[in-house]
Amino acid sequence: METHRFVIRRLIQIAVIFFVILTALFFLFRLAPGDPVSRMVDPSMTPEDARRLISQLGLDQPAWKQYLIYLKNFCTGEFGHSFHYGRPVAEIINERLPNTILLFTTSIILAALVGISWGKLAAWHKGKRMDVGLTIGSLVTHTLFLPWLALIMIWLFGYKLRWVPITGMISEDVWLDPTSTFWAKSADILHHMLLPLATLFLIHFGSYLLIMRSSMLDTLGEDYILTARAKGLTEKVIRSRHAARNAALPVITSLGLSLAFSINGGALTETVFTWPGIGRELVSAVSHNDYPLAQASFLLIAAVVLVSNLVVDVLYAYLDPRIRY
Fold this sequence. Notes:
Structural class: mainly alpha
Oligomer: single chain
Distance between the termini: 9 Å
CATH class of the domain at 93-319: Mainly Alpha
CATH superfamily of the domain at 93-319: MetI-like
Largest sheet: none
Order of helices and strands: HHHHHHHHHHHHHHH
């Protein structure tokens, strides 16, 4: 019952926070430098056509009226048309979002699985060669500057060795070939994904390893671990079933938030690798003062982050029954 009350209270908090974000985004974009009107109006247009276009987009209305229209459209699921593409915003997001989820969710889950496993081993062999090697390796990769690492990976594996494509997500000759099978197209996407996937893995796995190692070392000093040893349980059972489960709590938080923030696509990563995801689209929308597309993208990120925080809190209570809300 306590957990139910906690969830209801958090849902109310999330609704309030989301409304504040919704409002802040509307006014922040309109206070930002730049004028979307000048980008949309073709110099060859007559003044009447230009005024008609501006009126259709509602940009000739006062700010408070635009805000009310903005709230109404959001409540009805209408995010408007992109100023830059001239297409519905929902259509653009639906095209780009799966690409982002595919790349970033895969890389984060893979990095978490490896980081947690190696973190357990590093903590269990504290002070030994394995621990020192894993800790130093994770520190080095975690502190690398992502664009620099991405460019090095492109230069080495894409340009010099030519093992993988340098940019993009698909090969036109494969996807335009009517004889290409589903598996051929899937293999083509995987081939293009290898380079950004490896780059993101190297950047992220170290953080999970270090968090798991630190948490595991704290857990191994708890009284219930000594009790488990006194009961005659094997070291493997103590490490995997007793210590690792509680030590994973901080990692769950990091993983949940990482998955949530991955929805923005990592603007730098998608830009360097020209990956057609939501992060690259967000950068383009901001640079073109494309209010509808930028607002919808930020709102999507905010909603996922807020819900992910709630899910992480509930998982805490499940993984550690000592936690009560």
